[in-house]
Design brief:
This protein is α+β, with helices and mostly antiparallel strands and 61 residues long. It is built from two helices and three strands, in the order βαβαβ. Strands 2-1-3 form a three-stranded antiparallel β-sheet, with no helix packed on it. The two termini are 15 Å apart.
């Protein structure tokens, strides 16, 4: 059974954002601008993505 993945890219800087929003970006594994990672589609990851969706580009894999 394969897990679904989501590809996310950081397109806006977390500088000047709330501390918990910066924590969500780091929790998703994003380190710098235009960094792209693939995460497993879980409710926990979806929640973090929804908190900072304005700073991300999200694609289904």
């Amino acid at each position: 059974m394969s897990s679904k993945h989501i590809i996310i890219t950081l397109i806006k800087s977390p500088a000047g954002r709330l501390k918990r929003h910066r924590a969500c970006v780091r929790g998703l594994g994003l380190r710098r601008m235009h960094h792209t990672v693939s995460v497993i589609d879980t409710p926990e990851n979806r929640g973090m993505i929804n908190k900072v969706v304005d700073m991300l580009r999200v694609e289904e894999a």
